[in-house]
Amino acid sequence: MLRILLGKFLQVLFFMLFITFVSFLFVRLAPGDPILTILNVDELSVSQEQVESLREEMGFNKPLLVQYGLWLLNFIQLDFGQSYVTGQPVMEMILMGLPATLELTVGSLIVMLLVSIPLGSLSALYRNSWIDHLGRLFSIVGAAIPSFWLGLIFIDLFGVRFNWLPTMGRDGIASLVLPSITLGLAISSVYVRLLRSSLLDALSQEFILAARARGLSEPRIFLVHAFRHSLPPVITVFGVSLGSLIGGVVVIEVLFAYPGIGKLVVDAIRQRDYPLIQGYILIMAFIVFIVNSCVDLTYRYLNPELKLKERETSG
Question: Mind listing the domains of the chain with CATH numbers?
Answer without folding.
Answer: 91-260 (1.10.3720.10)
